[in-house]
Design a protein that fits this description.
The chain is an alpha/beta fold and about 220 residues long. The radius of gyration is 16 Å and the shape is globular. One of its GO terms (molecular function) is S-adenosylmethionine-dependent methyltransferase activity. This is Similar to thiol methyltransferase 1. Keywords: Methyltransferase, Phosphoprotein, S-adenosyl-L-methionine, Transferase. It comes from Planktothrix serta PCC 8927.
Length: about 220
């Protein structure tokens, strides 16, 4: 039986089988660079969509953000909670971490497309990394609507987009122009540029996006 990427079992099996190739085993380097730069925003309530094992979510928590990580796969959430506990005794294993302790981060087993009912207008920031590329392309408009709906007015999306050109997926590729087309109606495009410090296996295949919900 072929299991669709729309089915949580598709992702659950990959965690259980150890075939989660999207997992870097550490926070994404561009997020570390951003949080350590003068461009980093003031901490706020933050949603991490498709948080996986929690590296990026826990990274933002160490910089004082109030983080909630969401994932379709229960195994991902359980492993994120285990990593959070491990950091109590081994905080140095989280590369690039800040000074705060990430115990305040929460991890919830959810279908992201059902978050609107529970978290409408709830977040200052949404973090995107390997979630947009994992959903079927025909759900990208739904993703944009989701992000806008769970953000507060003037809330921001901080995204690391996988802009490869390979056919098929996941990960499903996209061009920078297509990213702009999807988001520009509801978001002000503050920044969208190629990433120069991607992990080696993704060099030349990532774009950094910083978008803000348009004022009504």
């Amino acid at each position: 039986m072929i299991v669709s990427v729309n089915d949580r079992h598709f992702w659950e099996e990959r965690y259980q089988q150890g075939t989660s190739a999207w997992d870097l085993g550490e926070p994404a380097p561009p997020f570390v660079t951003f949080l350590q730069s003068s461009h980093a925003p003031a901490p706020g309530r933050t949603a991490v969509l498709g948080c996986g094992r929690g590296y990026d979510a826990l990274l933002f928590a160490t910089y004082g953000f109030e983080v909630v990580g969401f994932d379709f796969a229960d195994s991902a959430i359980q492993e994120a909670l285990q990593l959070q506990q491990l950091l109590i005794t081994q905080p140095s294993i989280l590369k690039g971490s800040g000074k705060s302790f990430p115990t305040s981060a929460k991890f919830l087993h959810r279908d992201i497309f059902e978050l609107i009912k529970e978290f409408s207008g709830d977040f200052d920031y949404v973090i995107e990394h390997t979630c947009f590329c994992a959903i079927p392309p025909n759900k990208r408009d739904d993703y944009v609507q989701l992000v806008e709906s769970i953000l507060k007015p003037n809330g921001q999306l901080l995204g690391l987009f996988f802009t490869h050109t390979r056919p098929g997926g996941p990960p499903f590729g996209i061009t920078p122009g297509e990213i702009q087309q999807y988001f520009q109606e509801k978001f002000q495009i503050l920044d969208l540029h190629p990433v120069t410090n991607s992990t080696p296996s993704r060099q030349g295949q990532e774009h950094w996006g910083h978008f803000r919900v348009k004022k009504l």
